[in-house]
Amino acid sequence: MGEFKVHRVRFFDYMPTGIRCMAFNSKTERLALARQDGTVEIFNFSDNYFQEKVIPGNDTRSIETVCWVGERLFTAGLNGEITEYDLVNLRPKYSMDAFGGPIWTLACNAQGTRIAVGCEDGSVKVFEVLEEKINFEKNLDRQKGRVVSLSWHSSGTQIAAGMLDMIRIFDVQSGRAVQRMLVDRGTTATHRRECVVWSVVFLSDRTVVSGDSAGKVQVWDGSMGILVKTHLVSKWDILCLSVSQDETSLVAGTSEGTVVQFQFISATLGEGDKEWVRTRTFKHHTHDVRAVLELQRSIVSGGLDTQLVVRPLLDKVDVKSYDTALRKIHFPHRSLVSCAEQAGLLLFQFPAHLELWRLGESDSHGCPGDRLPVKRKPEKLLQLKRKGEEHISCSALSRCGGWLAYSSVSSVRLFRLDCHSNHLSIVKISRLPKVLSSAHQLCFSADSSKLFAASSHATVHVISLSQSECKYVHTFKPVSGCTESVHLLAPSADGAWLATANRACEIHVYNLHKLKPHCTVPVYGSCPSAMAIHPTTNNLLMVHADHQIFEFSIAERRYTDWSRKLQREGLHPLWIGRDTPITQVNFNPHKPTHFLLQDMYMFCVIDQSLPLPDRTTQFYNQLTLRSLSEEERQSRTHAFKICKKFQPLLSMHTLEDGALVMVERPLLDITTQLPAPVRQKKFAT
Amino acid sequence: MAALYEGFTLCGLVSGQNFPETCVQGVERGNDTDHVLVTDSGRSVTVYKVSDQKPLGSWTVKQGQTLTCPAVRNNQTGEYVVVTDNKVIRVWKDEDINFDKVFKATVSAEIVRVHAVCDSEPVVLFSRGAVRLLDSLLAAPQQPIEDVVSEEEVIRWSSSIVDGKQLVVLFSTEQKGNHFLYLQRFSPNSIQKYKLETEGTADHPISFSASVKDSNINLLYLYSNGCVYQSMVQRHRALGEALQSLPRSLLLSLPVGEGHLASAALLSLDEAHVAVVGVPHPSAGAGKDYLCIWNTNFQTLQAGKEMTGRIFGQLWGYAGKLYVPHGKSLTVIPYEVQRSSLATALGKLKQSGTEGAPVLSWSSLLHGDVAQPQRAVRGVETRKSKISRKSQATSVLTVDQVLERITTAPEEEVQREVEMYLATAAPPGLQLTVGRVASQLVARSQSEPTFYPHSALVQLVHTHCLCHSVCPDLLMVALERKDYFLTQLCLQHFPDIPEAVTCACLKAFISVPDGELEEVSVELDSVAFMESLVSGSSREEGLRNGFSPVPQEEDSCDARIAASGPEKAPGWQTCEPTCPVGLKKGALLNEILQTAYSENFLLPHLKDLTAQQVILFLQYLNFLYLKCSQDDSSQKSGLRSPTITQIMDWVGLLLDAHFTVLVMVPEAKELLSHLHKFVKSQVKLFSELGKIQGSLQELHKVKPSEDVGQYSIEVIELF
């Protein structure tokens, strides 16, 4: 099939930040996740856990708590503000100061009409949820000591509040505290320190469950204010609690990295009263589990070790399927790496800066398996710090390496790069067209003459670039009237077409010569995760979050025969069952029938001229083929050539000379940069 | 057996401009065995007194002139001869101070070497292969010199030896990769030419050593591939025959390591031993900086010594000393070569475990000083010893006279006679005569109860020429007379003591009361490692691993055996081992442990021991074993101490011989159970160590995970 020269790149020091809090919207099956740097990510659990949206962080914003109110998303943090987000344009909609000092917690009642926030000054403030805004309604009785956790009773009349050394239950109507439950400080060693009730859950039978810094999960009778049961779970803090919707199961996340499940069952089967019994312990984290969710069929947890873990509960019972597999999400489902294929440059996107690297060179040739001597080492040409407090949301590098653009929530910056041998000059283009205020995605045309910027309300601006000026050309709007933002842009190599994909799963193709919409690809139910236009055939190749592959002929406005054949014969189950979405589509410049796909654990060359694998064929067959003779190989080979040598992969690119660039980021490198966990696993303990 | 002793530097070397590859042109014999003549690569000749490491005289040619061959000493006239600038022969004496004013003669052809052989005239070898006696050449310096070898032939090596009474000059030549050997004989003059075989072009002879053996010339030569060949050159061979290859036999194949030998040299030490320098030590990696002595009969390495710095492939040997230029110095290394025996070859000889020199006790021989450590005076003879030897050599008696005196003369006189005889006797015949003298002495002391010449016997044993088979009764007599010192010496020096005698000695040693040994002087080297015993309680170093030796009175040792009550019953682990025998007894027993034996012959004799003796001996062996395994670090090499293997062999033998008896004896019960426990724990330990070794071995098989680093360019192939 072929040899590839691979630039194995490990110098992208991508470092995700720890997960701070999570909220799940069971109606839309969306998980909102806030990280410590203020980034909010939205995962679509109904679409293969695809990371649908990312709202870039901001240095001034810290998020302590996140909450869905219907389909609206609110966060609050230590800056004392409550923020609602514009989930279409992926930016904060407005922020409101609660005037109670830093906010530790925010909770919405079951009806979705009121929000309560717990503040540093000891007050619980109730806000009324109106359309487009929230209004301050009242303060509940102010207490001494901060309010760390809140939980509404399902009736909406009472709120349980976890504070230092105690839990209070407030009557919302009167604002009075009706119960006061003192939490024991625990063992003598921790006796001097106050016990922080990190999390409370108010169940509909007026049971209150609390998790505290002494490592206890306690069950209280909220109506009488008495302690029912204490489970000593950990030597360290219980940081978060989550109860299932039917209130039969409850999970607690600890500082040790464990997640402990409790279930409301009777001690002997079918007899006696039910009680909360500690049942299972999961250990998927090395550090604090800061957020945990009990989702009936799975437990979702996240913490300081930056990974999001989805732990299905029926893994041992069900037949093995996509839904019963343990899932760990480490990397973003979008590319943070741009590549100048002509110039051999790589652009790495960090929240606060960009790094431009030139790849190394080797003039020798080798046999497969060889590592070639590196004649010129890779070189970091540029480190570009962003301006302001907003994190970089997207970046792009032109194919020739002459242009660089990046965008934050409120501004776009464009730079002209001039790289001659060892000298690099960078010029900021100062006067950008006014329309270019922010971008969800940036992309340069293949000849570097145009910049495409996906802007608000699903529009795409076309800017023409030249040495002297940059000029606004046109704005494309989707004919469907959809306003969801565009997250993928794919220009064709000949400069005639531009394909856009938005988060409503729509893919539009625009004619760049006529500056008109050309056609719309039939909408498929899963979000496109990667797409590209073939440089010679101008077929649009799309891969969706559920791993389906489509090839659409732009000229003929129809799916190609190969795509139909693929749909007819179906993809191999092992392909469908893959864990991480495809984040990159590339083409082999020397072989028009080849295209390359990449996810976190593999990259794959698909040869359209070869037969497709059916259910019975061995799917991962590279090792077998290697051992076979040339003739036998012919009979056993199939279109999917999967290579798992390089992993975990952040990105893959094809250079103009056909060499591949694999950007790896070993998870160990991420782990080593984390702070030390509270409890080290010792030998035989 | 052969051994290399601690060497010393004779002189430093300066690399010359003319001979960058060799730093010494030659080391030649001086006026006696202690003088050598060193010609350096530049312009000077120096006479050294070796034992003093002192130059006695030095002569340097003028700037611009060079010495082109090593200076030699004409033993007939006491003159030195050297060649300068290839054609000028200089002859001078010790008294000549100004080197420029000495006798000079310019000859008509270029000279390669001047050779001097012990008792004959020096010979001059010309570069075209002609040979002249020095006298005849100096008589007519400008005489025409004929060409023996062709233009292209280059003389690589030359030597001269005396074969019978005939002087022979040997030289090898090279011509376009072919190697030839020429033998030039005098009176009548004849020349023989042989071709030296080479397997490949790469293999060529690099070093030669010639000696006379059974009136044939025995030539050893080393090839660059490490092979040592031997050729016997017949004396009488008709001239004019076609060029023959020299018949040869492969004697040794030395380990070469990688590549070929470039600078290595070989020297024949005696019939069975060769010294080789510049060849890798077989067990020390590929470094070629070793001086080794090999036994050619058994192809065994006898001794080795690392030479630091560059080796020049030069090696000379005179009078028991090897001269090796290496690095920046010329080192003199005394060596000793003993006649090889079957016992040594089989390795069943004492001291087989410790690689070191056989024990010479010069000091005890000369001064009767037993306590003095041996190492200090080993090897080089001290000046003192020679003086004392000279002073004794006043009246020289023949063997027969001595033997006659022995039968009649009083003890003191006999002692003196023997001493004097030994001081003057020449080594070659010593072996025979010493045996006769010893037998005579023993015979007389057997018949005459009052006669026992202790010191004479000790001296005889120290000559190293005595062995048990030469004088079978000596050991028994010594034992009868309770001369434990002599017994110990015999055990040390005799390689061929029969097992029955060994057993008799053992029995005697065990049963002798410690008190009786108080007075006797016994060599305590073999118990030196048991520090706690030697130094008593005055052990000042810090305790190791909580080990604290219990000071023990020698006499109370035996008491412990009797009092093996329940309160003293704790296992060997808890109970600090105490020596069940006295120090001197221990030393004697250690000597037994180190004698060579064969199990089959020893076992029946061991059965003669009584149960009590066996128990005591076992206790001692047990104690020794614990000591050895505890203090392994203090077991210095070279000290005569029994090895763990020897101890264990003896324990096994004793138990084999007496197990049924021991089982029945109540006192042995505790000891047996200790031994059992100890062996069990050792077996366990070793099995654990084996497992660890195995698992560590597995680590080698584990492929190290590929270190990718930050960036690499790789080639992959998809199918």
TrEMBL record, chain A:
GO molecular function: RNA binding
Record GO cellular component, one term: 90S preribosome
PANTHER family hit by this protein: U3 SMALL NUCLEOLAR RNA-ASSOCIATED PROTEIN 4 HOMOLOG
Cross-referenced InterPro entries: UTP4 (IPR046351), WD40/YVTN_repeat-like_dom_sf (IPR015943), WD40_repeat_dom_sf (IPR036322), WD40_rpt (IPR001680)
SUPFAM superfamilies cross-referenced by the UniProt entry: WD40 repeat-like
Biological processes, Gene Ontology terms: maturation of SSU-rRNA from tricistronic rRNA transcript (SSU-rRNA, 5.8S rRNA, LSU-rRNA)
Protein name, UniProt field: UTP4 small subunit processome component
Organism: Synaphobranchus kaupii (Kaup's arrowtooth eel)
Coiled-coil region(s): none
UniProtKB/TrEMBL annotation, chain B:
Entry annotated with the keyword Nucleus: yes
Ranges where the Nucleolar protein 11 N-terminal domain occurs: 1-335
Pfam families: Nol11_C (PF20998), NOL11_N (PF08168)
Domain of life where this protein originates: Eukaryota
InterPro entries reported for this sequence: NOL11, Nol11_C, NOL11_N, WD40_repeat_dom_sf
An annotated Gene Ontology molecular function: RNA binding
Keywords of the record: Activator, Nucleus, rRNA processing, Transcription, Transcription regulation
One Gene Ontology term from the biological process aspect of the record: maturation of SSU-rRNA
Cellular component, GO annotation: nucleolus
Domain Nucleolar protein 11 C-terminal: start-end pairs: 407-719
UniProt keyword annotation of Transcription present: yes
Subcellular location: Nucleus, Nucleolus
Protein name: Nucleolar protein 11
Originating organism: Synaphobranchus kaupii (Kaup's arrowtooth eel)
